[in-house]
Amino acid sequence: MIATESLSKRFPRVTALDRLSVDIGPGVTGLVGANGAGKSTLIKILLGLSPATEGRAEVLGLDVATRGAEIREQVGYMPEHDCLPPDVSATEFVVHMARMSGLPPTAARERTADTLRHVGLYEERYRPMGGYSTGMKQRVKLAQALVHDPKLVLLDEPTNGLDPVGRDDMLGLIRRVHTDFGISVLVTSHLLGELERTCDHVVVIDGGTLLRSSSTSDFTRDSGSLAVEVTDSDAVPDGTGALAAALAAAGLTVQPAGGTGEYAAAGPGHVLLVDVAGEETYDTVRDAVAGLGLGLVRMEQRRHRIAEVFRTDEQPQQTHAWGAAPQERGSTDAA
Ligand SMILES: Nc1ncnc2c1ncn2[C@@H]1O[C@H](COP(=O)(O)OP(=O)(O)OP(=O)(O)O)[C@@H](O)[C@H]1O
Questions:
Q1: Whose C-alpha lies nearest to ligand 1, atom 4?
Q2: What ipTM goes with this model?
Q3: Which SUPFAM superfamilies does the UniProt record give (predicted)?
Q4: The dihedral sign for the CA sequence 265, 267, 270, 272
């Protein structure tokens, strides 16, 4: 879908992209980077709207330097910033955008109705957009990117400004753009955690250079530890402590999981992380739990969170590329 080769963009005071080479296939791909990492600059180059200083890029096999107009016919674009005229309705605006993309009047009206329905705008679609909430405006921006039935959409920070519920809704919509319509998606965000749930593939850039490009499952591959949670009993009031001692006595390496992030609900110290030494580790845990007469609440292979892949000794900043969304609903990021 997208290929860049040693792509650079230099402004007088800053290098926004620095010899970026990356291949992006079909599906939903997340482009993650801190503010200023070069995400919007890359999107503008891919649309043929801004020339690269060096290197080359192709979108759908078309060279961005020479075939920008053809690319824009086949690619939808949702810009980051608010760009909607306040005095017109969503329907009028999206019909206009569909006409601009070359659809005849009837098809433009039909596609507009379908697309606005898909993004969840109903009676409000006839009201002037100036009175819309941020979530509704983001939906209109998404609808205008989809209305001409593109093969690929480039979505620049579509969850910006949304509350946790709005963010989840938008991410669900983005996923369905691919599953329901077969349209490939490149979506940018400065929050790794939210893309983990939405994307098949994640590309991480920092300072205009490629940090990593891999499938989401590679990012979140098995961590080699088992999360175990047990109930206490009358006979064993500290079930977790007793189990930890029993497992250590059996030669396993055990440590309590932190009381935040994915195991927050269990409370601090209530989930044990057991290093998996081999298949027999599962039997050892099961036998120890049964031997103590405890109830087994969970025993699961723990997977890495994307955020952990980039965790450093420093506390990550909320605005950093690998920070978790603030108050993210249902988020299991520990960052
Ligand atoms: N037209 C421009 N003139 C000068 N510098 C620019 C221009 N556009 C972008 N930059 C700079 O290039 C760098 C990358 O900007 P870009 O907007 O691509 O980042 P981003 O990853 O999209 O971040 P954000 O999410 O904050 O928009 C930044 O340092 C920015 O200040």
A1: 11
A2: 0.94
A3: P-loop containing nucleoside triphosphate hydrolases
A4: positive
Q: What is the CA radius of gyration of the chain?
A: 24
Q: Which domains does the chain have, with CATH numbers?
A: 2-219 (3.40.50.300), 221-310 (3.30.70)
Confidence tier at 151 by pLDDT (50, 70, 90): very high
Q: How many angstroms is it from 265 CA to the middle of ligand 1?
A: 39
CA distance 272 to 263: 10
- Is 179 exposed, middle or buried (CB count within 10 Å of its CB: 0-12, 13-18, 19+)? exposed
Residue 133 Cα, ligand 1 centroid: separation in angstroms?
A: 26
Q: Which residue has the CA at smallest separation from atom 7 of ligand 1?
A: 11
Which residues have any ligand 1 atom within 6 Å of their CB? 11, 14, 16, 33, 35-41, 80, 157
Q: pTM value?
A: 0.72
Burial class for 42, CB neighbours closer than 10 Å (0-12, 13-18, 19+)? buried
Order of strands, sheet of 54-59, starting from the edge strand that comes earlier in the sequence? 15-24, 2-10, 54-59, 62-63
- Residues forming a β-bridge with 274: 226, 254
